[in-house]
Amino acid sequence: MVSAVVLVGPPGAGKSTIGAELGRLGLRWREWEQRILDRWGSRDAFVANKEDGLRLLHAEIEALIDTPGAPVVLETTGLSDAAFLDRLAAERRVLFVRCDVSRATAGRRIAARPTGQHLSDDPSDNRRIWDEFQAHVAPHRAVHLAIDTETVDAATAASTIRGVLFPTAPG
Predict the structure, then answer these.
(1) For residue 140, how many other CB atoms are within 10 A of its CB?
(2) Within its chain, how far is the Cα of 34 from the centroid?
(3) What is the per-residue pLDDT across 5-29, written as a single tens digit (0 to 9) for each?
(4) Is the CB of residue 46 less than 8 Å from the CB of residue 119?
(5) CATH superfamily label, 4-165
(6) pLDDT of 39-62, one tens digit each?
(7) Closest to 105 in 3D by CA, of 6, 17, 44, 5
(8) What does the alpha-carbon distance between residue 105 and residue 109 come to, in Å, rounded to a whole number?
(9) Strand partners, 99
(10) What pTM, to 2 d.p., does this model score?
């Protein structure tokens, strides 16, 4: 059985929205970015302590994955935690889902979302991260499923992911 679903994509791709939908469908979803902000107080404080911050976050995620229950859902750009994702893939059954979105749509979504709930609300930071994702993650991170979040809404994406995790028995 799959122990974790990793939603990988650039800022504004809809990872949090799809994750919340998966939570409504019974998977174990936590808003990890909010947990980081709650723990560190700000993005700047987290970045200043990024190595320790990621170590603590990854330990928390692994502890949750190792607790019996439905698959855990986590979201990432796949940039800072590539080694962690590689280790998860090597040690556990993980479903990787890439959430695709154009730069323009991502920018509109980021501008429209409430502030203070993500690691960065700054449009230029998010454009830079979007570009880094396209250059360093999208072409190299193997995924089991890719979803175009411009044409597929979050509920449909979550239902599709759930269907991959729990296919109906034939006949």
Answers:
(1) 9
(2) 13
(3) 999 999 999 999 999 999 999 999 9
(4) yes
(5) P-loop containing nucleotide triphosphate hydrolases (3.40.50.300)
(6) 888 777 887 888 898 899 899 999
(7) 17
(8) 6
(9) 147
(10) 0.90
* Rounded distance between C-alpha atoms, residue 171 and residue 97, angstroms: 28
Report the pLDDT value the prediction gives residue 171, as an integer from 0 to 100. Answer: 47
pLDDT tens readout for residues 109-154:
888 776 666 666 677 787 888 999 999 999 999 999 999 999 999 9
Q: What is the CA radius of gyration of the chain?
A: 15
**Phi and psi angles of residue 119, each rounded to the nearest 5 degrees, phi first:** -65, -25
DSSP 59-73: HHHHHHHHSSSSPEE
For residues 74 and 6, the answer to whether their CB atoms sit within 8 Å is yes
Q: Which two tokens stand for residue 152?
A: 């597929």
Burial category of 163 from C-beta neighbours within 10 Å (exposed 0-12, middle 13-18, buried 19 and up): exposed
Are 74 and 64 a contacting pair, CB within 8 Å? no
Residue ranges per structural domain of the chain:
4-165
> What is the rounded distance in angstroms from the CA atom of residue 56 to the CA atom of residue 75?
16
